[in-house]
# Entry
Amino acid sequence: MSYHQMAQVYDRLMADAPYDDWVKFTKNMIKEFHPHVKAVLDAGCGTGEITHRLHGGEFVLTGVDLSEEMLAMAQQKNPRSGIQWLHQDMTQLEGINHYDCVISYCDVLNYLTDEISVRNAFTSIYDALNSKGLFLFDVHSIDHIHEDLYGSTFAEVYDELSYVWFCDPGETDNSVVHDLTFFLKDGDKYTRFDERHNQKGYPINDLQHWLEEAGFKIKRICADFDEKPSTVGDRLFFVCQKA
# Structure
């Protein structure tokens, strides 16, 4: 899913997102499973919050996203960072290889709403990795989609921004439609814009099968930033390694 006008307000909406937890998880998994990681690719990097937090000399970083608007926001945050920002589709990465680690967080994989796209993404990411390279990603669990998202409404009112967010079941099993309406202050008036985002959840067994089919060995599945093995939680984390 490509974000358009929402790129203007994305960081405001995500102000409380646990970015530091994603960074901590990434560094701990690298330390445990592949301590010599240098080149890191952030697939679905959005406005680059996680990418920028990983910056600091330890890694050579590249951010990839389908939204040019989100990439522009990422670039503006630190133009001299040396991070490479690329406008590409993670299901068919082109000219991207020799990475030691690929990360894809904040349920980016759930935006791939059919099996073929997920499998293509796994294959594309596998090809981008060096031998023994890590692939770290998270997804919404199916239980979370059914129990917490379906039928939910979220709303916030700020001085410069207000929004209403409806979550409803999609047309296919385990899919969810996010209908968002924003009111953004523009001088002495508010401008309205609407976006619709589609996501889909996948059974753990299917994800495992497609990862192994692509060539990955699954080193661990855990939940909600807890690094102990578990398949119960709202957000599931997969730690995979190129064979």
